Amino acid sequence: MTTRAESAAATRRALLDAAAELLDLGGPEAVTLREVGARAGVTRGAPYRHFTGKDSLLTAIAAKSWERIGDQVHALRTDPALSASEKLRGALRALIDVGRNQPHLYQVLFRRRANLPGPLGDGMDRIRRQLCGPEGDPAVADRAAERFQDEFLDIVAALVGERNARHYGALLLTSAHGIAGMELSGYLDTDKWQTTTDELVDTLVRIVTDAGEMT
């Protein structure tokens, strides 16, 4: 027999899956509680019992996505069959692939923090977090993103050492973000620049690997 908690958890998963699909199809504008509920096949009021608005729903999608990316990078980091440079290449591509394959999700993952609270102000935003719990809490998304960053830093540290890991880690992530943004916007034109995303990633890995060998 399904308990109330299990039923609620299943409803949340269905809502998040439906919201992620709508985001991929039409961007944040397509994600409304009404459309998410209809796509998930739940009662009209169900989405409003789990999320107080679009922002809390998008935040929950971001948290879930950062967890997935963190899992991917963790699997790379702990794979004994991969070299340190192969792990780094895979981690960079895991992030860039989101921009390549799910551009709307990528923009949600990297939207400005100042945009996270809703227009109702800090007091109402605190109430929103209390009502939504971890499903729509920006702190959960932040922790999931930080976990990805920590996994990534461990991969970088294996190449350049703990002392230099944060410097090169920041360089790599900002470079990967720039590459993803250029590709997403269409400005990374192969004819113009005579290079590809994969070649740029290989160059970044080679630079960091060479730097590690010199330390």
First and last CA, distance: 60 Å
Count of DSSP H/I helices: 11
Give me the count of strands: 0
What's the order of the H and E elements?
Answer: HHHHHHHHHHH
Radius of gyration: 19 Å
User: What's the rounded overall pLDDT mean?
Assistant: 88
What level of helicity do the residues show? over 70%
Structural class, please? mainly alpha
Portion of residues in beta strands equals under 5%
- Poorly predicted runs are 114-134
> Biggest β-sheet, characterized?
none
Overall outline:
globular
List keywords for this structure.
single chain; 215 residues; mainly alpha; 0% strand
Task: Describe the protein's architecture and organization.
- With 215 residues, this protein is mainly α.
- Helix 5 runs parallel beside helix 9.
Topology of helices and strands:
Blueprint: H1 4-26, H2 33-40, H3 46-50, H4 54-77, H5 84-101, H6 103-109, H7 122-132, H8 138-160, H9 162-185, H10 190-193, H11 197-214
Helix pairs in contact: 1-2, 4-5, 4-8, 5-6, 5-8, 5-9, 5-11, 8-9, 9-11
